[in-house]
Amino acid sequence: MGRGGKLGEKSFGQCFRSAVAVRIATNVVLLISDLDIICSCLFARELFIIGGIYKFFFAVLCIGFLTYMSGIGYFAPQNKFGTVKQILEMMSKQPQQFKGNIPDRRGRGPGKPFTVTEDSSTNPANDSRWNTDTKFKDLKPDADGYAEMRLALSRYKLSHLWTYADRSSSLNTCEIRHGMPFLRLARFGFMAHPSARDLGSILNANALYSFCLGIFQLVVSCILIAETSNRDMFILLPFGISASSFVLSACNMLLDFSGTLYEIDNEERMAAEILDTLESERKEEKRKIDETFKDRVAEIETQFGGNFSLKDRVAEVETLTELLRSHQLALSEAEHRNREKLGMEITMYRERLAFTKRATVFAGAAEVQFDELPKGKIQELKDQLRPVEDQQKKFRMQPRRESMLLMLQSCPQTSSRCKCKRSTLTLQRSWRSSANRPET
Question: What average pLDDT does range 184-199 have in this prediction?
Fold first, then answer.
């Protein structure tokens, strides 16, 4: 694919990561595809009425429609689970792609080196979290084998290989619910968030119809218009709709829309799995931070408990305020650290997928250049929090007089004989005398 094709595919992928864009595209494609089938029926009727050689063309259109129905009803669904066979073939032909490290249960450390083969177990290191001892060669190209192969490669941190294989077979995949006219409109037209995989399959069905009937219909329309100068609506309308459907199918093939949509769908699934794992880690980390905060609060209350002196009350307020700020910063850093990890996982996943594409297309190629990683969000967070830390340092270094004044001003007694009031006057005198002294 040329530079323009890659650029178009990249722009398409960025656009269709939005649920709104996928919904709009799905309904537009359904509208064009179903209108194409209706107009084909009108065009076939016109051919039958004209008679002569056009009755032969009418018979060819009927055969093309039967070919289309057999494709979406039998042959295309058979390729749905072809990804399993393709992965097994890649294991034998390209074993270097299946090397890595088995992650431990906590996801820490480099892990144990491994090479996945057909004789490898789908359960890495016999992890008790997955109750299975099936081998890869035992997986069949059916619904169960398809699901187990995807999960097994995810356990080995090889999801990018699954995405590549699934993407490669996406152009050969379609089900009857994606190609049956009006049934697919009822099935997907109301959805607020149709999946990218379904949109890719609908595009595949539209391409199949263009090759079975659309192109032949365009040719016959041109012959009919040239010979009879017939400008009837039943000829021009089918011609225009079939031309639009053919352009859509051509763009699908040239820019690999279906493959990109399958890639987006697999990435969304992988992101959901990562989010589930990170969410449990986030809750556990938050629980530890909250427990530490509660323990520190209990220690402070024990330390200052029963002491009602002005100095102790001010010290307790300052300590609790500083502890609360530290707690908020710890929670914020943990949250951003969690987001940073998600971004890194997805970035590395995309890079591994890009490397797999290049290594498969150009076997034995030297190196694959990756884009430079963006600036870490943790560093950006630290830059944003630096002013807060500076303010916190100033708070620690400045005299405690402001906090003490706030405490004294909150005293409910108004008598001038109140110890708080007398202490306030004493403090004010001492502060005036030391106003010109340099701070240490």
Answer: 87
Distance CA 352, CA 410 (A): 62
CB 240 within 8 A of CB 261: no
104: Cβ contacts below 8 Å, ≥ 6 apart? 111
Over 50: is that where the pLDDT of 68 sits?
yes
C-alpha closest to that of 78 among 162, 152, 143: 143
Of residues 149 and 281, the one with the higher pLDDT is 149
Helix (H) or strand (E) holding 110: none
Please state the φ and ψ torsions of residue 102, each to the nearest 5 degrees: -75, 120
Per the CB < 8 A criterion, the answer to whether 176 and 187 are in contact is no
The mean pLDDT of 249-261, rounded to a whole number, is 83
CA distance 397 to 260: 57
User: Is the separation of the CB atoms in 170 and 261 below 8 Å?
Assistant: yes
Residue type, 370: F
**Cα 361 to Cα 94: distance, rounded to the nearest angstrom:** 12
Six-digit token string for 389: 């830390």
Q: Which letter, b or e, does each residue of 17-26 get, where b requires 16 or more Cβ atoms within 10 Å of its Cβ?
A: eeeeebbebb
What is the rounded distance in angstroms from the CA atom of residue 350 to the CA atom of residue 356?
10
Closest to 1 in 3D by CA, of 178, 253, 270: 253
Give the residue carrying structure tokens 């294991």.
91
SS3 breakdown of the chain: % helix, strand, coil, rounded to 5?
A: 75, 0, 25
Predicted pLDDT of residue 366: 41
Paired with 308 in beta bridges are: none
SS (H, E, C) 315-383: HHHHHHHHHHHHHHHHHHHHHHHHHHHHHHHHHHHHHHHHHHHHHHHCCCCCCCCCCCCCCCHHHHHHH
* Distance, C-alpha 287 to centroid of its chain: 27
CB–CB of 173/204 below 8 Å? yes
Does residue 213 surpass a pLDDT of 50?
Answer: yes
Residue 182 has pLDDT above 70, yes or no: yes
What does the block give as tokens for 112? 């144990």
- Cα–Cα distance measured from residue 390 to residue 220, given in angstroms and rounded to the nearest whole number: 78
pLDDT digits (tens, 9 = 90+) for 311-368: 777 777 788 888 888 888 888 888 888 778 777 877 777 777 777 667 665 544 444 4
The CA distances from residue 312 to 90, 301, 319, 410, in Å, are 72, 11, 10, 15
